[in-house]
Amino acid sequence: MIREFKYKGETFRVNAHGIPGHEEVFIIHLVDGEELGEISIDRMTEENDTNAPIEAICVMLCDKLITEQDIQCADPTAAFVWVEGRRVRDVLPSNDAAAVD
Known about the structure:
Blueprint: E1 2-7, E2 10-17, E3 24-31, E4 34-42, H1 54-68, E5 81-82
């Protein structure tokens, strides 16, 4: 899954692959379309709540990234929300015939 979301007034992109609870999850902080800080977790090998939904993992990783990179959030009280719009793809295709238009 590749999807954008907002948290604390900032825009992030999540790239998660694997089975629920055991994904590799990458979070990228986006500012004006530019990719800035990045953080990740391998839920198969690193300590985490494997029952937690992907949204909770995104929040956990964002909080760490915000602290590590001293990000001055636009709205520190804003909750997590998925950005509405066309999802790029849920599963990366293995060939061009499987790609989403």
